[in-house]
């Protein structure tokens, strides 16, 4: 639940930092689920002779270090979504019980309810981001799931169908997010409209539309999060620390309105008017994504960022 002062702050600043959005057990279960996932990936690389056998007490981070330094694809098998293109029936993705419990956790939904009301759909634009220390990232890596994210508004990375959708982004810290390890930064204040974006290495706002001196960092402790409006400009800082920065970004919109990625599956996370319509089973969530993957694998490519060009007048 948010206090009226927090709701006012969100409406004034376009974002809000909230402590303890998920409980310790929910967070620990998510970590354990990813440990299991990485163990399985690592066992596969090991049996292919690609990685060394590590000591029995090697940690999640030790294994991730090997994967990053060796250039293995660990990211997509971890993500709670499909990539933008080249989707095949074998494209890996992750949908498990702990992540589902996080996405549908009462504390998050109670908070979101204070901002967009009690008919809440889990929007399929959702990602895990486990960002390594920048010094360990291979040259040329530009993906916003691995390195720092350029300035953008979330409304600009949805399809036009969601331009009037009432939506919030819930950015959740699984490890402490600090200025040093690359927490979010935002431009506070209610930005009234879409700022032109350019499709460069990432979809982003060019400097002349967004002077960086307006930026405010939004550090938050593990378990807490940053909630923001889809028009609030934000970016992330570089990870200049020695450790990983782990977050999830989840989105929720008013049920019945377009998610902006309508070819991916959504589900009703909360409904006060019809509680029986809420999805309670993580397997059904996983099944929906698998059916979507099978469908997209044999259909035409959908350009999710088609409204922005790389050579528009704004991109100079
Ligand atoms: O975590 C990041 O680097 C950026 C996340 C972001 O843009 C979002 O959550 O909408
Ligand atoms: Fe974003």
Can you offer a commentary on this structure?
- This protein has helices spanning 4-13, 24-47, 60-70, 75-78, 97-103, 106-116, 282-297, and strands at 15-18, 119-131, 167-173, 184-186, 198-199, 203-204, 216-218, 225-228, 234-236, 245-254, 267-271.
- By secondary structure, the protein is of the alpha+beta class.
- The chain has one domain (4-27, 96-315): q2cbj1_9rhob like domain (Jelly Rolls).
- The protein has a six-stranded antiparallel beta sheet. It has a three-stranded antiparallel beta sheet with strand order 7-4-9, with no helix packed on it. A two-stranded antiparallel sheet has the order 5-6.
- A hairpin with a 3-residue loop joins strand 5 and strand 6.
- The longest helix is centred in the N-terminal third of the chain and has 24 residues, at 24-47.
- Bound molecules: 2-oxoglutaric acid (AKG) and fe (ii) ion.
- The site of 2-oxoglutaric acid has 11 residues, from strand 3, strand 9 and strand 10.
Key structural traits:
six-stranded antiparallel beta sheet, binds fe (ii) ion, binds 2-oxoglutaric acid, 11 strands, three-stranded antiparallel beta sheet, single chain, 7 helices, alpha+beta, Jelly Rolls, globular, 316 residues, 26% helix
**Strand percent estimate:** 15-25%
Inertia-based shape: globular
* Hetero ligands: 2-oxoglutaric acid, fe (ii) ion
Q: Per CATH, what is the topology?
A: Jelly Rolls
Structural class of the helices, strands and pairings?
alpha+beta
Strand order of the largest sheet: 1-8-3-10-2-11
Poorly predicted segments: none
The total count of helices amounts to 7
| C-alpha termini separation | 44 Å
Total discrete domains:
1
Question: Mind describing the biggest β-sheet?
Answer: 6 strands, antiparallel
**Rg result:** 19 Å
* Number of distinct beta strands: 11
């Amino acid at each position: 639940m948010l206090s009226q002062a927090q709701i006012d702050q969100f409406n004034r600043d376009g974002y809000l930092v909230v402590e303890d959005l998920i409980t310790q057990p929910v967070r620990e279960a998510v970590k354990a689920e990813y440990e299991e996932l990485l163990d399985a990936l690592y066992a596969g690389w090991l049996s292919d002779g690609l990685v060394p056998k590590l000591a029995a007490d090697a940690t999640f981070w030790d294994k991730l270090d090997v994967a990053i330094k060796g250039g293995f694809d660990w990211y997509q098998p971890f993500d709670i979504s499909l990539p933008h293109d080249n989707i095949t029936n074998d494209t890996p993705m992750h949908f498990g019980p702990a992540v589902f419990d996080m996405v549908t956790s009462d504390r998050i939904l109670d908070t979101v309810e204070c901002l967009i009301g009690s008919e809440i759909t889990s929007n399929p634009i959702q990602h895990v981001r486990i960002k390594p220390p920048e010094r360990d990232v291979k040259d040329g890596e530009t993906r916003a799931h691995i390195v720092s994210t350029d300035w953008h508004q979330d409304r600009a990375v949805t399809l036009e169908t969601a331009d009037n959708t009432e939506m919030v982004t819930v950015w959740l810290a699984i490890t402490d997010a600090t200025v040093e390890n690359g927490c979010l930064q935002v431009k506070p204040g209610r930005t009234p409209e879409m700022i032109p974006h350019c499709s460069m290495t990432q979809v982003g706002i060019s400097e002349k539309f967004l002077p960086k001196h307006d930026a405010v960092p939004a550090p938050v402790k593990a378990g807490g999060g940053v909630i923001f409006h889809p028009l609030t400009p934000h970016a992330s800082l570089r990870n200049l620390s020695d450790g990983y920065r782990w977050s999830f970004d989840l989105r929720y919109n008013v049920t019945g309105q377009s998610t902006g990625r309508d070819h991916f599956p959504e589900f009703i996370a909360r409904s006060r008017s019809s509680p029986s319509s809420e999805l309670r089973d993580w397997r059904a969530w996983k099944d929906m994504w698998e059916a979507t993957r099978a469908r997209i694998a044999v259909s035409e490519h959908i350009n999710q960022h088609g409204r922005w060009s790389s050579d528009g007048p704004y991109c100079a």
